[in-house]
Structures are given as C-alpha cells and as structure tokens.
Fold Ectoine hydroxylase.
Amino acid sequence: MTTTDLFPTRAERKIPMSERLDPTVFADSSSRKDGPLDERELKSYEENGYLFFDGFFTPAEMQGFLDDLRESEDDEDLKLSEGTILEPGKQEIRSIFGIHEISERFDRLTRDPRLLDMVRQILASEVYIHQSRINYKPGFKGKGFNWHSDFETWHSEDGMPRMRSLSCSIVLTDNVESNGPLMLIPGSHRKFVPCIGRTPENNYQESLKSQTVGVPDEGSLRRLMNDGGIDVPTGPAGSLILFECNTLHGSNQNMSCWPRSNLFFVYNSVENTLADPYCGNRPRPNFLANRTDWSPLTPIA
Ligand code: 6CS
Ligand code: FE
C-alpha cells in the first residue's frame, strides 16, 4: 500500500509552499488550561511559533548544567564518538548529539515537570525525546546554521509524519547580539516550505556541519520575512526558547570571544512516532532520530 506524502519536499523542482495542516497548540478548549502556560502564552505560541522565557532556570541550577557542559567538552573519548560533530575543517566541537544519554543531569532535566508540563500541554499527549544535543558555538570558531525548518528534515530524513513536536532550547551561556544567537521568523510555522534538491545518502554527515539540502529558496524566505520579520531573542544563561518544529530558524557565526552554547531537547508526541523516511533513504542513526524508545517520559518528583 502506498500512502501519499502530505509534505513532499527535496524534489528536483520547486514545489509551492502550502498551508500548515496540523494545530500548533493541540489542546482543546477545555484541556488548554491543563498546564503552566496561560492563555496569553498559548496564543502567542500559536501566532508566532515560539515562546521566550528570560531567566527560566536559576543561576544556582545553571552552575550544575555548566559543569556537565565543560565535562563533555573535555572528554577526549566523547570527541571521537559518532554523535559528536566538529566544526567544518576544524577541531572545535560544533554539536554533541544524544546528550541526555551521556549526562544523567540532562536526562533528569528532560523529565523536569517545568518543561514536561508545558510540552504536554501544547502537544496534548504523552511525549518522548526524538533528539537531544548541545550546540557549542565556540568563540571566534563557531559557524552558523542556515535557515531551515527542523520538521522539513525530520519528515523527509527521519519519517516524522506530522507537525506535532517542538524544541526546548536552554541557554547555557549568555546569548547576546554578537555571539550568533538563534534567529526565528515569527509565523513561519504556519506554512510548509518544500526545499529543492534530492537528499544524498548519509546527508547528515554534511548537513550537521553546514546544511545545503533542506534550506528553503530565497523567494519563500523573503515572503515569510516580509510577513513576519526576524526575531532574535537574547538573554542570560538559564533563559529558555520553546519553538515549534516547523518554525524557520537559523543563526550567524560567532565572531565574538564568548561561546554561545545552547542545550536542545526535541519532544515528539507518542502519537507521532517515526515511519520510514519520506525521502526514501535509509533511516539516520539513532543519536539523531530516536527509533528505539518511544515510551512516554514521566516527570521526576
Ligand atoms: O538534522 C537535524 O536533525 C538537525 N539539524 C538542524 C540544523 N537543526 C535541527 C536538528 O538538530
Ligand atoms: Fe534546527
């Protein structure tokens, strides 16, 4: 049986952008109140595709997170592991994937009720971790991330069926204008922008260093930027950005001396578990797209 792909992308020619098919907040009118987010925050998330919380975690909590960040950075064995991605042509660490399987503290953090209750309120279901990582973006050496929708990649390369997932980005070192903070296009989550170009096998080996396949065309980006602008939330370590899986985002290289290190947890609904990749390639490794444990996360006490 062949099923039609609702989000065709990575074709040779341009496919026009289409309307979003899924809700952004999955809770219905009665369950919208079941969680920490108030109606104003839910409306803002629906409208813009993200929420920013300045100083969500306390400086005392952040100290522990920073200890784990440094420990991972200095771990020579970890540097050689498959889930560690180095900056293009360099020795500096760009990303470490599967970080919640490496650090006990970050594993617990994925189940912190302050995060989990917000995520479950928005997605209105139980959730599991699809992907986790730290993006280090070291001072002077950290390169940027081209414009993209995470969902576009997760759908085509990982077989994520629908837009029912989101990322929590926890700011580990102050994100300022000069160190390449995350940029988002407000409202872009309401369109699906197919990208041009077939996906090579093992594309991740390139794309995680510098993404070229899965980047929207300039005409589509211009339209969405003219409609929604570009927002660049900045804030101290401990701030939190929660963004919808289809919100277009990217970031510049870090020309400052200060690292811009952010921790990411991607939560997916247990009602949206992975199928075969829609691009037809082999599935990506588990450290990028969890296919082995879809059991619901339970909050830590
Ligand atoms: O390929 C991926 O899954 C990822 N790449 C980017 C640039 N963002 C999200 C995710 O880590
Ligand atoms: Fe991304």
